[in-house]
Design brief:
Elements (H helix, E strand, L loop, with lengths): L1 E2 L2 E5 L3 E3 L5 E3 L4 E6 L4 E6 L1 E2 L9 E5 L2 E5 L2 E2 L2 E2 L3 E5 L6 E5 L10 E2 L2 E5 L2 E5 L2 E5 L9 E9 L2 E6 L2 E5 L4 E3 L15 E5 L2 E5 L10 E2 L2 E4 L4 E9 L4 E9 L4 E5 L12 E4 L5 E4 L17 E4 L6 H11 L1
Parallel strand pairs: 7-13
Antiparallel strand pairs: 1-2, 2-5, 3-4, 5-6, 8-9, 9-12, 10-11, 12-13, 14-17, 15-16, 16-20, 17-19, 18-19, 20-21, 22-23, 24-26, 25-26, 26-27, 27-28, 29-30, 30-31
Length: about 300
């Protein structure tokens, strides 16, 4: 997340130990990357710190970062946490709702931020059999169930209003996306976009990729895991006006990435950090800690002059 020319990363993923056990990274750290100086800084976090998790969904609203869902040592969760990113103290608090019902426990979901609300879509998690009312909104994982608890994918939409601390399920219409997890989403103007998992011709179907707004009409897609389980390094730009994709040339074609993070920087740059360069469910040795900057638009003249002056 971009705050005052600094990227803030809260680490919610796991590493593979030499004993082949899943080991979570420290959950009380937040990392700041200064875009101007290219320097990392680690700060400690306090308060009601979330448990170590993977597959959480994070977003930023009015200087507060919210994380929802994820998977910890006990499985998927539906807890919501919040931390202020502007005060430099980084104190977590657990958000308790006052009305409505939160989504069922899930991970690998996505989120849109619009009109002061957090809107969550999809994910993978579990439900009681009695709570599965519509097979079109919850796709059971046929190999994952215990007694009356079933795991699966969903295409549900849930909305949280931080002002009233209330959950709701907004009415949707039209052609619903298929149930999915590990997809990408982005907010552009007054619309939310979802991309990933079902196969498509251009670009190839994928999961664990990122989708980033780069203008009022453009979305940038990078990386992910292909439908044949190959890490990907291709980039694409989608024009929401013409609804057409075009492949984007960049210098990182030899550096595939999945399960990474991305955000918009200055002048429509896209900064990608972390993730893995291999299929983590088979070989978990390719975690990455480098940052890549994708220039999606020509730079303003003053920025070109600044770079030229630094080179000389």
């Amino acid at each position: 997340m971009l705050i005052d020319a600094k990227l803030l990363f809260y680490v919610t993923c796991f590493l593979q130990s030499i004993a082949d056990d899943e080991v979570f990274l420290p959950n009380d750290e937040i990392w700041l990357y200064d875009l101007e100086r290219g320097v990392w800084e680690m700060c400690r976090m306090s308060g009601e710190v979330p448990p170590p998790m993977s597959g959480t969904c994070g977003c930023c609203l009015n200087g507060d970062m919210y994380i929802f869902g994820g998977c910890d040592d006990n499985g998927q969760t539906n807890q919501l946490y919040c931390v202020n990113l502007l005060d430099g103290i980084y104190t977590w608090r657990k958000v308790n709702h006052k009305s409505g019902s939160p989504p069922s426990p899930r991970d690998k979901l996505s989120c849109w931020v619009f009109n002061g609300r957090l809107i969550y879509f999809g994910g993978y998690g579990h439900k009681q059999l009695d709570d599965i009312n519509n097979n079109r909104s919850f796709l059971m994982d046929e190999v994952s169930w215990v007694d009356d608890i079933y795991w699966g994918w969903n295409n549900e939409v849930h909305m949280f209003d931080p002002t009233s601390a209330s959950w709701s399920e907004p009415h949707t219409s039209g052609c619903d996306p298929d149930p999915r997890a590990a997809h990408a989403s982005v907010t552009l103007c007054h619309k939310g976009y979802v991309c990933g998992v079902p196969a498509s011709n251009v670009p190839m179907g994928r999961s664990w990729h990122t989708l980033t707004a780069i203008s009022d009409s453009g979305l940038f897609l990078f990386g992910g895991l292909s439908i044949d389980c190959k890490p990907m390094s291709d980039g694409w730009v989608f024009d929401v006006g013409t609804k057409k994709w075009r492949e984007f040339e960049h210098p990182y074609m030899n550096k595939p990435r999945l399960w990474h993070t991305a955000c918009q920087g200055k002048d429509s740059d896209v900064i990608v950090f972390g993730g893995s360069c291999n299929y983590i469910l088979r070989v978990d040795t390719g975690h990455c800690n480098d940052a890549h900057v994708f220039q999606t638009q020509p730079y303003p003249l003053f920025r070109e002059n600044l770079f030229s002056a630094r080179r000389h």
